[in-house]
Amino acid sequence: MNRRTLLGSAAALVAASALPAFAQDEKLKVGFIYVGPVGDGGWTYQHDLARQAVEKEYGDRVQTTFIESVPEGADAERAITQLALSGHKLIFTTSFGFMDATINVAKKFPDVKFEHATGYKTAENVATYDARFYEGRAVMGTIAGRMTKSNKIGYIGSFPIPEVVQGINSSYIHAKKVNPDVEMKVVWAYSWFDPAKEADAAAALIAEGVDVILQHTDSTAPLAKAQEAGAIGFGQASDMAAFKPTPRVSSIIDNWAPYYVKRVGEVLDGSWTSHSVWLGIGDGEVEIGEITEAVPAEVKEEALALKDRIASGEYHPFTGPLKKQDGSDWLAEGQTASDQDLSSMNFYVEGITAPMPK
Amino acid sequence: MMIDPLSVFILLLGAATPILFAGLGELVVERAGVLNLGVEGMMIGGALAGFAVAHASGSTALGFLAAAIAGAALSMIFAVLTQFLLSNQVATGLALTLFGLGLTAMFGKPYEGMKAPAMMPGPLGLNWMIWLGIALVPLVWWFLARAQPGLILRAVGENHDAAHGLGYPVRRVRILAIGFGGALAGMGGAYISIATVLQWTEGMTAGAGWIALAIVVFAQWNPWGVLAGAWLFGGVTVLQLRLQAAGVAVPVQLLSMAPYLATIIVLVLISARQKFGRSGGAAAPGSLGRPFHALR
Hints:
heterodimer, A: alpha/beta, Rossmann fold, 6-stranded parallel sheet, 11 helices, B: mainly alpha, globular
């Protein structure tokens, strides 16, 4: 899909050169780099909703451009450079794999501001922002543990990066809490968006006896597959409401709009500074989608109670005692994981038997 | 950890079907001397058209028919540009892929989130499209190796000037082949949307068309080789997912790379054989990718 990216960038360039160079109080141009297509119905779709919210909020004062389906890797640097060259003063790069590309481009364009999603490298003109998806995973895990009949739950991972590993651990810990017999199967798709492969991954899990599927990839394919097999799953990144009331019994929704609106506003009034934020359920950045009637009322209540305790800060999903997969100690009784620990998480917790990819 | 080989094989057949269809279609196109790199574009076109019709009519059979028509229609753009206007086949094929992806992204919006009707089950619990794909392999082989029109098609692909000299309608043969390739690519794409993913998602073929192109080279332009290639590519995907689900530590990157590595090894072996003066084995058709312009 590099070709489409190329067209997109070319269009952005043409649009930029067509603007009169002498315009003084020109609009703030805000660029977005997406890892998938806007129509993925998940991750990228949610980022694009936030982009539209920015346009709605500031109207004529901003102009937004997006380039979709940008592969993570060398091509990303080119796409980001194109946006920077064509006069965009604020650029959101919305996937973990754009991290190094963002930092590299930012060095060359010190007067352009960058916002990188889910990464850990910042600079004078590069801020990072992330959502505590693992908080939502704790709620999903609770439902999964209660709903499974085979006591096998499955997780479709994208890439073995800390964000996804946190999700797997959080889901497992909370499923195990309500169902000590639960077993977790993990399949890595090595893609954020590949509907056919995601469907095959779901099929592989179902063939292993899994009846509740959690996904950390961006398309709705695993839900469709779950439905075919009579299993259940959860909306990922977006509500995926088309699959209500079952197989989609609840969802984790990423709501980026408030953050994007705030940061664009800060560039407009000149108060933007680099930072690194990590917002969760309590901040409204991670939302739990409607829990449908396919879930018994008491399970729903239990899940919502957990959500409220996380939102208020009363409970941290990673609270000790917890051990690592190899049996070594990680968190002592009552101790909670630090953000630093979480942002470099590369191990499973005790009880998960799947091997951690190297 | 034991995994049941039969269930892996069944998943493999499903994963191989889209690339088997597209690969067989492209094989016929290339044997006629035309290189159409627009497979991905025609597949995604078929994926959308097939899904839309299957959703509206409730019939997957009608869906696949519509996908074949849509794929063939898209391929006719390529046919007109390369056969009448003599445009560069590589560039035109790439453009067709871009065009297909963009066009379906635009027209596919209303279909997002809708669900496909259920596939008709066929013998042994496998759906009819899997059987049709496998049945097409001997048919295409027989057509190319034994039937007279197939011989003409190969003659056109090997040396279009000679075929023209013998009075064969080079252009017409090629247009028919391109249309056939488009129809099969369309059906392969529709298999992804109707049978595998069960819904329409923008960009859902995710590179299957490029794999189909690789398979044709891997197969050395032989239909049975396309079947082997489709099973190899499909099998590796399914097997590594199953192994992971069973909790086995698998070197995913190595496995994912294996089919491409096999393609390169096949190419090296073929060229080594040619270098040492041994003929045999069907290599690339002689006129592959070259534009044909009748002087008289």
